[in-house]
Write a structure and sequence with these properties.
single chain; 12 helices; 11 strands; globular
């Protein structure tokens, strides 16, 4: 299939330079690579810039109300399990008003592909701080700097017992497409944190890793079964250090060091996945530390991908089990189990 088959006839109304353009194109490419026909795909969104996505894809779609994409997407998947369901939401839509739905669709492990567009700002409503804006961030709704500590999406996913978490950059199309394909292959709630730029209200928020000249030094693309190596010359690796006490920590070593870790995205225990997902997050959480260059790179690619029963499978299995054991096989049979009289 071709990516053009998944493009709708609607004019794309993202601002010129917005990172959402790249995620939209990546999703079209990923859908073509996956090969599921357009009539077997549903794209569900809430409210926000990213939530316009259903209009730009030649699939079934529903632009729902603010924060409720998860509830609607769950209903779509459980009622039509044959559909491939994508959920498009921003950091405000998904983590603020939609936060409760978000953690529960992950906890339930509904077979959805969730793209979280994280630009650390409310773009559609013109520049208020969001749940992922760093502490001290100055915005229209925090003129003296927000005093709140931000969410780190990976922590929410891991805390809700998530089975799949990936992270990607809007300027890295190949990694974004790869993460989306792997999200579709995963059975369960797949979360992709898409780091996108809001060119109008928070321009350059991810420049410290998005910049082409420094990206190789400040980020690492994790691939299952491969050594955790990064750097412009592929001369650095990640290892665990146990010298500081009972709790190990990640450190940077030479790429040829025997301690360099091999990425295991399928490891059931989330401890190492959480450590990897939190690398470099000081750049995300505190404006005061925004200029500090962390020793550890930020992790991109698929960080966690483990198997577990999905919610929609569990619901269908329960229905089938109850039906198999029930004495009443039809509605008429059910009526006859109640008190009745022959006339």
């Amino acid at each position: 299939m071709e990516a053009s088959q998944f493009k709708s006839d609607q004019y794309v109304r993202f601002c010129p330079g917005c990172g959402d353009h790249a995620i939209c194109m990546a999703l079209q490419k990923a859908m073509a690579q996956i090969g599921v026909p357009t009539h077997e795909v549903a794209v569900i969104s809430g409210i926000g810039c990213s939530s316009r996505m259903p209009h730009y894809l030649n699939t079934y779609g529903f632009n729902t109300i603010h924060g409720r994409a998860g509830a609607v997407a769950t209903g779509v998947k459980t009622s039509h399990p044959e559909l491939t369901v994508w959920q498009m939401s921003g950091d405000g839509d998904l983590l603020a008003i939609g936060g409760n739905h978000f953690i529960h669709e992950i906890r339930r492990n509904v077979d959805l592909n969730i793209c979280l567009f994280n630009n650390r700002i409310y773009g559609l409503t013109k520049g208020q701080y969001s749940p992922t804006s760093p502490k001290g961030f100055v915005s229209k709704s925090s003129p003296f700097g927000t005093v709140e500590r931000p969410f780190i999406p990976a922590e929410l996913v891991m805390g809700a017992r998530g089975t799949f978490f990936a992270r990607t950059l809007d300027v890295d199309m190949p990694t974004t497409v790869d993460c989306m394909v792997k999200a579709k292959e995963h059975k369960g709630a797949s979360v992709i944190e898409c780091l996108v730029n809001c060119v109008i209200f928070n321009n350059g928020t991810h420049n410290w890793i998005a910049d082409r000249e420094t990206r190789a030094e400040r980020s690492i693309i994790l691939r299952h079964g491969e050594k955790m190596i990064f750097g412009a010359n592929k001369d650095k690796g990640l290892a665990l250090d146990y010298s500081q006490g009972l709790i190990p920590r990640l450190i940077v070593v030479a790429a040829d060091d025997e301690r360099v870790l091999t990425h295991d995205a399928h490891m059931a225990d989330p401890t190492l996945h959480r450590m990897l997902a939190l690398m470099g997050q000081e750049k995300f959480t505190d404006v005061a530390n925004a200029e500090i260059q962390p020793e550890l790179p930020i992790a991109l690619g698929v960080i966690r991908d483990v198997e577990a029963e999905t919610y929609d499978e569990a619901v269908r299995n329960q229905i089938n089990d109850v039906q198999a054991k029930a004495k009443a096989k039809t509605f008429d049979d059910l009526l006859m189990t109640l008190e009745h009289w022959d006339i």
